[in-house]
Amino acid sequence: MTILTIVLLIILATILFLVEIFLIPGISLAGILGTCSIVYANFYAFYHLGTTGGLITLFCSTIICISAIIIVIRSKALDKIALKKSISESIDNSSAASIKVGDEGITTTRLTLIGQAEINGNLVEVRSIDGFIDEHTPITVTRVQDGNIMVKKS
Length: 154
Prior knowledge:
five-stranded mixed barrel; 5 strands
């Protein structure tokens, strides 16, 4: 019964580690429970089987967990859930191309360093060089670089 308990705890820990690594990003309940399960399995083995049985369990549990991770990585099982599409879209900056340094406009949203403004009848994303600028405040374009429009209060 003791060995069965240890084997079941190691299998549970291995499954939880695989879930943690491949399905749930970050540190989650699966990782915490997997760690607790593997630690308890080794503690249980040392307590009930002695030092030799505990060391064998520790070695086997390490090999089993590492082997399971390697097997899953090399298998085609992850290809079914892997992201295969790439984003080929880009932001439309055609309205920003008509804006020149010195143009004036008005903010349509509060600029907490970045926001929207209406300049020359175009609604564009702008960056404030003056810090925070409230909504409906007149602004002047100070620099246009790589589609980024820098503005300051008028």
